[in-house]
Amino acid sequence: MRVVVQRVRSASVWIENVKHSEIPSGLLVFIGIESNDSTADIEWLTKKISNLRIFSDEDGIMNKSILDTEGEVLVVSQFTLHASTKKGNRPSYIRAAKPEISVPLYEDFIHRMEQMIMKPVQTGRFGANMEVRLVNSGPVTIIIDTKNRE
């Protein structure tokens, strides 16, 4: 599993010119799922994301997590995070999991994230053509891959 986590002042997902979901300040999480990902990846990743200290404390130092700030989380599926550009100019997505694997893992990830932050998580729509609007705060953008835990 690979995620791009962005600290945002606001974020929303629009589908066919209709607002599907929105959060005020918090985290926007783009998630890409591979065929060999598992619930163990979900457990590790949701714990890592919910405890990332990327929000400023009273002294302006990034020392608080989403748990400390009680911010919101928006999760958007993005299979292109597993694009391979090694050969040619057309990316290959062969490492991205097929929907029969990725949909249940995506749903499990959302459920586990809700348990970690103890509130509902906003989402995109799996497989939809989405327009994601965001105001990145900082900017702070973190890439995490469960295959690189060391």
CATH architecture title: 3-Layer(bba) Sandwich
Instruction: Name the CATH homologous superfamily.
Output: D-tyrosyl-tRNA(Tyr) deacylase
Question: Tell me, what is the CATH class?
Answer: Alpha Beta
Q: What does the average pLDDT come to? A: 94
H/E order of the elements?
EEEHEEHEHEE
Work out the count of structural domains.
1
As an assembly, this protein is: single chain
CATH topology: D-tyrosyl-trna(Tyr) Deacylase, Chain: A
Strand content: 35-45%
- Give the strand tally: 8
Any idea what the shape is?
A: globular
Helix content: 10-25%
Question: What class would the helix/strand composition place it in?
Answer: alpha/beta
Task: Give a verbal description of the structure.
The structure is a single chain. By secondary structure, the protein is of the alpha/beta class. The protein has one domain (about 1-145): D-tyrosyl-trna(Tyr) Deacylase, Chain: A (3-Layer(bba) Sandwich), CATH 3.50.80. Helices cover about 25% and strands about 35% of the residues. Strands 1, 2, 3, 6, 7 and 8 form a six-stranded mixed β-sheet that branches. Strands 4-5 form a two-stranded antiparallel ribbon. Helix 1 (about 40-50) runs parallel beside helix 3. It is globular.
Concise summary:
With 150 residues, this protein is an alpha/beta fold. The protein has a single domain, classed as D-tyrosyl-tRNA(Tyr) deacylase (D-tyrosyl-trna(Tyr) Deacylase, Chain: A).
